[in-house]
């Protein structure tokens, strides 16, 4: 079994649906990576969901003016986990922010454990979560081939930025991470 706590960021219909303004082109690749990781983490898995706030405040007002389709309640279909994860083995943390390093997630991971991140989108919610957790002193591993971005260039740039935070944040792959656990 792999050490750490796997957090699967925002694997939701709004990012999976090719017709969505927020479609993630390599979503299926991220799904395949996440599915490969799940057995190694057993009950140490948390899924997250990005949700719109009931009433946007501050800079979020301008954000939702640009993306008005997203101002839907938490039970709207676009916010559901995609079909591959509709019945998640782990628990679900909801947040109206890009970063998912909430007190609830921090309590699940624990102060001395490492956080393993997968999901979408690499340059937004994954990056925001990784940096906040690293600032809190948590070791973070980002599984590159279990993540996807808005496009390949943004995905790669985000991974390069996170790699600058070594040793607090380390970019790895599914195979490398699972090999660390041994036979």
Structure description:
The chain is α/β, with parallel strands linked by helices and 183 residues long. It is 37% helix and 20% strand. It has 7 helices and 6 strands; from the N terminus they run βααβαβαβαβαβα. It has helices at residues 13-16, 27-41, 59-66, 103-109, 122-135, 152-163, 174-181; strands spanning 5-9, 45-50, 91-95, 114-120, 139-148, 169-172. It has a 6-stranded parallel sheet with strand order 3-2-1-4-5-6. Strand 4, helix 5 (122-135) and strand 5 form a beta-alpha-beta unit. The longest helix has 15 residues, at 27-41. It is globular, with a radius of gyration of 15 Å. The chain starts with a strand and ends with a helix.
Radius of gyration: 15 Å
Helicity level = 25-40%
Please mark out the parts with pLDDT under 50 across 5 or more consecutive residues, or reply none. Answer: none
Give the SSE string. EHHEHEHEHEHEH
Physical arrangement of strands within the biggest beta sheet: 3-2-1-4-5-6
**Proportion of residues in β-strands:** 15-25%
How far the N terminus sits from the C terminus, by CA atoms, comes to 9 Å
Name the quaternary structure. Answer: single chain
Helical run tally:
7
SS-based class: alpha/beta
In this structure, how is the largest beta sheet organized? 6 strands, parallel
Got a strand count? Answer: 6
Shape: globular
Mean of the pLDDT scores? 94
